[in-house]
């Protein structure tokens, strides 16, 4: 399953994540905070067998190119391009990053459509930069 990564936890990041999820896409939200703005209270429930999480929080991660950052945007892109959703988490664990993770907004696998249709619907979602 293809996913979109959003770095940040501000209003623009959360609004973008919400619009992409409404368009039928899956989103990884990477945040420097372990649980931004009570995020875990708003979206509760773990995914059961036969479902796929539409939203995944990867928290307590500093993204950037500075020496004290945990991972760079280009490294996230390189890992995500391999289409294995576990690679980012494995890389952070290998670097000794004490990250938090949470998944939610689960949908049955049978309800997911093909990537071309998801991309077409996502292009219709208004996003402000």
UniProtKB/TrEMBL annotation:
Gene Ontology biological process terms in this record: methylation
Domain of life, per lineage: Bacteria
UniProt-listed InterPro entries: FAD/NAD-bd_sf (IPR036188)
GO molecular function, one term: methyltransferase activity
Keyword Transferase: yes
Alphabetized UniProt keyword annotations: Methyltransferase, Transferase
Listed name of the protein: Methylenetetrahydrofolate--tRNA-(Uracil-5-)-methyltransferase
Organism: Corynebacterium flavescens
Origin organism lineage: Bacteria, Bacillati, Actinomycetota, Actinomycetes, Mycobacteriales
């Amino acid at each position: 399953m293809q996913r979109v990564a959003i770095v940040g936890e501000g209003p623009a990041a959360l609004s973008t994540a919400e619009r992409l999820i409404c368009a039928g896409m899956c989103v990884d939200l990477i945040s420097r905070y372990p649980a931004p703005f009570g995020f875990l209270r708003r979206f509760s429930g773990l995914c059961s067998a036969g479902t796929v999480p539409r939203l995944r929080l990867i928290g307590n991660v500093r993204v950037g190119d500075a020496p004290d950052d945990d991972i760079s945007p280009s490294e996230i892109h390189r890992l995500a391009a391999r289409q294995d959703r576990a690679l980012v988490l494995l890389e952070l664990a290998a670097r000794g990053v004490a990250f938090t993770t949470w998944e939610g907004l689960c949908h049955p696998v049978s309800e997911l459509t093909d990537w071309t249709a998801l991309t077409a619907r996502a292009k219709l979602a208004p996003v402000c930069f």
